[in-house]
Amino acid sequence: MTTTTYTVQGMTCGHCVSSVKEEVGAVEGVTGVEVDLPTGRVTVTSEGSVPDESVAAAVREAGYEVVPA
Amino acid sequence: MTTTTYTVQGMTCGHCVSSVKEEVGAVEGVTGVEVDLPTGRVTVTSEGSVPDESVAAAVREAGYEVVPA
């Protein structure tokens, strides 16, 4: 199991959190997504490793941006 | 046709706007709902008059509050 944390900017409310969870949760290999709204921290759990770009693309699909580490 | 404007606090993004439009739009007699996110102004168009309390209840249902005039 792999856990990776990203910082996402632009989320303002619970609806935003739900959108990010839904899109990132649909990425192949992802088994769990936790979002902390105040910090924008998104913790992704996966089986094996998931490309950062796949997660970033899913975040963009939801309408937000991953802040480069 | 009656047009009434309310101020709603707590909306932060387009998802919030959609939630308010959906709930208020479902109130009996309401024929249109426009929301201006920056100001929180919600303009409700209806056939005949709709009780303010019905609109306020729908706004609460969406998770927000009408600011008393």
Automatic annotation (TrEMBL), chains A, B:
Q: Where is the HMA domain?
A: 2-67
GO BP annotations listed = copper ion transport
Does the keyword field hold Ligase?
no
Q: Which UniProt keywords apply?
A: Metal-binding
What Gene3D superfamilies does its record include?
A: 3.30.70.100
Q: Molecular function terms in GO for this entry? A: copper ion binding
Q: Which domain of life is it from?
A: Bacteria
The record's SUPFAM superfamilies line, in alphabetical order, gives: HMA, heavy metal-associated domain
Q: What is this protein's record name?
A: Heavy metal transport/detoxification protein
Q: List the source organism.
A: Sphaerisporangium rufum
Taxonomic lineage is: Bacteria, Bacillati, Actinomycetota, Actinomycetes, Streptosporangiales
